[in-house]
Specification:
DNA-binding, mainly alpha, 3 strands, elongated, homodimer
Chain lengths: 125, 125
DNA sequence: AATTTTCGTCTACAGTGGTAGACTATAATT
DNA sequence: AATTATAGTCTACCACTGTAGACGAAAATT
């Protein structure tokens, strides 16, 4: 493992990442702003998030014409895995069973979810 | 639902909570300090964590003799559920399948884990 | 050409969390 | 009694995150 890639992404920053992850190609700040407009953030707020995400190495940016375009460096998959891993380690002391049990207790799983998960398990072993 | 119970607990604070959760009865700051000594925190640092946890309503404190004794208000179970819920919502957009799939990809599950989880599923439906 | 709109850049401020020193009061030892 | 150890309280500092205003340049509109 490399000398560590512990990039933290804040909750608001994450909303921005999600928009970029959804986009097939590099996406402009204008488009990003539009996509997160429901959050009510000012343009400069979103811009700050973008700048910080670039600083952290989560995004790469390039200026095309007048505007900045962003591309993910960290993928959604990587991020998700890192987050589950972190939760598993920090909160559940490594017990995946405990984690999944908590999901149940949260009633976070529909019958359909359960069916799907069983399918995953069957396949996996 | 009440008007919200979004108590955030930092990573270091959590280590302190864990110690208190493990203790059957109210536990003194001295004992807590001893229990977290491997982290190398100064006494006053731990004390700050405790004070903040009390402020946030995660712990209750009472002075007995010379020392403060702490008892959890938030239980480990509540906290864990809230954390999984939060991860599910913020990172996995509510898809529990996606979350569990990430656990797999993380290779966080041993064969034994898988067996145990299957058992949970069987029981649950 | 003059004006307005669109963007990027810089600076700032408050809240939370990690970290701890200074100060004080009380209890334990010598 | 004098000294030392123990434990609580206060204050502070920095990094990170959410939030955004002020400024300036370039592009689009009138």
């Amino acid at each position: 493992m490399s000398t560590e890639n512990i990039i933290t992404i804040g909750e608001a920053e994450l909303e921005v990442m999600k928009v970029i992850w959804k986009s097939k190609d590099a996406i402009s700040s204008a488009q990003i702003c539009k996509a997160v407009s429901d959050h009510g953030w000012k343009r400069t707020t979103v811009t700050t998030f973008l700048a910080r995400l670039v600083e952290k190495g989560a995004l790469s940016a390039e200026k095309i014409g007048k505007s900045m375009y962003y591309t993910p460096i960290i993928t959604a998959k990587q991020y998700k895995k890192a987050q589950v891993k972190s939760l598993l380690k920090n909160v559940f002391d490594g017990s995946a069973q405990d984690l999944v049990a908590s999901l149940f207790e949260e009633k976070a799983l529909s019958d359909n979810d359960i069916a799907e998960l069983k399918a995953i398990f069957e396949k996996k072993e």
